[in-house]
Amino acid sequence: MKRKLIGMALALVLAMGTLAGCGSKTETAEGNAGTAKGDTALTLWSIATESDSFNRAYTQAIADFEAANPGVKVVHETFENESYKTKIKSAVAANELPDLFYTWGGGFSKAFVESGKVLAIDGYFTDEYKAELPQAALSYATYDGKLYGSTYTTPVSALFYNRKMFEENGIPVPTTWDEWMAANRAFLDKGITPIGVSVKDTWVLAMTHDALTLKSAGPEKVAAALTEGSQSYDDPDFLASAGKIKELVDMGAFISGATGLSNDEASALFYNGTVPMYLSGSWMGGSIVTDAPNPEDFDVIPVPVLSGNAQSTDFMGGAVDTLMVAAGTKNPDLAGKAVFELTRGISKYAYLDGAGIAAWEKNYDESGINPITKKLADYAAEATSFTMWFDTLMDADDAGEYLALLQGLYVGNISPEEFVKAMAAQLDK
């Protein structure tokens, strides 16, 4: 892949989104919005909205940090996932970042770091934190040998399903692609749409496509095509996964009206038993517990393998969820401490809630973890590879084009062949 002119792209592309990013806040954590006279305030942006499974973990971690640091208040402002991507890029371009902010590591944040707007935090990663958070977990927050963020979870993509619906309809739980397609047809024959998805929130559709592509092309080939430039995307294994998406669309496997449904709306149809399957990240384990009327009806399996290039233990995911510190913060020492204290707390509480797989050491009682989250944690522990989701792994301009092409593929504006050729052309720019 030819080297991107990241600085220019950031100035031109991101600046265009400045106005679009304004007004996208959906919630400010109660209890943290106001600060008493004389308090030191740190502002934190995240996507842990009130409906997000990580919201409670953030709230508890913030409360712990404030209790341990009298006179410090963390003002937590939250934003919906898709609008936040525009918001954070605009804030970087305008030099208006808060003290602490959520972002996705890897390619998504590379331009932020290269713009000089993010604080290197190696000096705050003390021996205490190093003993509890493996250096390997911070690989997606490390750029040119320097650390720019801390993480709290190791999410993976998986296929969640309603065990009760499978049992009541006499349909075997699939372990291979052929078995999955047979299950889809069996549900359709019974008048049940089998798979929930959001196309309005394109990242949800992308998670399905990414997982199928990983299980078709394999982790080495995906990395070579998306980041190294040594593998063309116009390849039979990438075409196969695009073809599978079209096959699922054409057979009516996805819920009707997905192009107008948000992830919250689409996943609600899974929780209430309208659809029996949903491909998502491990955070759905926590959402099932809080949002499904009968959490015991649900279970999870790895995404089926499509070819010999991949194994069932290859997963989309990894420790990409990251908190970073703005280079312009007025309180760098406090923010540098907070980024590790908060991510350690979020890691603990999210795992106990079943919302995420802990990236930090689990030095607390975990006997009450829900079975789905425990199974997902075992998947992560036994994984042979982790591959970041495409829109995070790729540079920002490639990711935007990828999501647009994927929507076009879903609605039938382009064919699978046109999709892989367009992807190859974009990645070669």
Automatic annotation (TrEMBL):
Residues 1-20 form the signal peptide. InterPro entries: Bact_solute-bd_prot1 (IPR050490), SBP (IPR006059). Keywords: Signal. This is Extracellular solute-binding protein. The lineage of its organism: Bacteria, Bacillati, Bacillota, Clostridia, Eubacteriales.
